[in-house]
Design goal:
With about 200 residues, this protein is mostly beta strands. It has helices at about 60-70, 110-120, and strands spanning about 5-10, 25-30, 35-40, 50-55, 70-75, 75-80, 85-90, 95, 105, 120-125, 140-145, 150, 155-165, 170-175. It is globular, with a radius of gyration of 16 Å.
């Protein structure tokens, strides 16, 4: 008999609910919400990483973004060009409650077969577990090791949340308060900040 573990998931403002392409997929696809600061959080809502670029308008601090990549607008909306040897922190728009299991942010299989191979992209934190007590926005550190530029857009399905080896259901909750309190806090997918 299979035991299905329920993982609570809160979609933050501007985020998109995770999806699965097929019922038996091991991971839930995650979508880019914004380019974020890896170590800073929103002052009012400490579980959301501070936005640097939200893909809705030119950022106030576009000077350093343009040096690191290129922010522009085309017929489909705003985009960010991740240049070779560049890296960027991506807010994935969801906070999860993992009941006693570790989660991992992994590249999507179809993404690996296309852009990850041709651009040599890496999710630098894909081996870092998301601890059961972590209650901050999930994020990915994307690194471009290749010679080409990679285009990022809002809601791009770039990676997936994989939780343990047990099947689980994602139960969307309406507010952050519907998640259980946790001792691990909101740093780096569950880090205590100590070495």
């Amino acid at each position: 008999m299979n035991v299905i573990v329920k993982v609570k998931c809160f979609v933050v403002s501007g985020g998109k609910a995770p999806t699965r392409g097929h019922r038996d997929d091991i991971g839930w696809d995650l979508f880019i919400r914004a380019i974020v600061s890896p170590g800073e959080f929103n002052g009012r809502r400490r579980y959301i990483r501070k936005e640097v670029f939200d893909f809705r308008s030119y950022p106030a601090c576009s000077g350093w973004l343009i040096k690191k990549g290129i922010v522009e607008r085309d017929s489909e909306g705003f985009l960010y060009r991740l240049r070779p040897r560049g890296s960027v922190s991506l807010g994935l728009g969801v906070v999860v409650e993992l009941p006693g299991l570790a989660g991992y942010i992994r590249p999507r299989g179809s993404t690996i077969a296309s852009a990850f191979n041709s651009c040599r992209l890496e999710i630098a934190n894909d081996t870092v577990p998301v601890d059961p007590g972590f209650r901050g926005e999930l994020w990915a550190e994307l690194v471009n090791h290749g010679p080409g530029t990679f285009i990022l857009r809002k809601n791009l399905r770039l990676c997936q949340l994989v939780v343990g080896s047990a099947p689980y259901e994602l139960a969307l909750v309406r507010s952050y308060g519907d998640l259980s309190p946790a001792v691990r806090g909101t740093n780096c997918n569950g880090s205590t900040g100590r070495f």
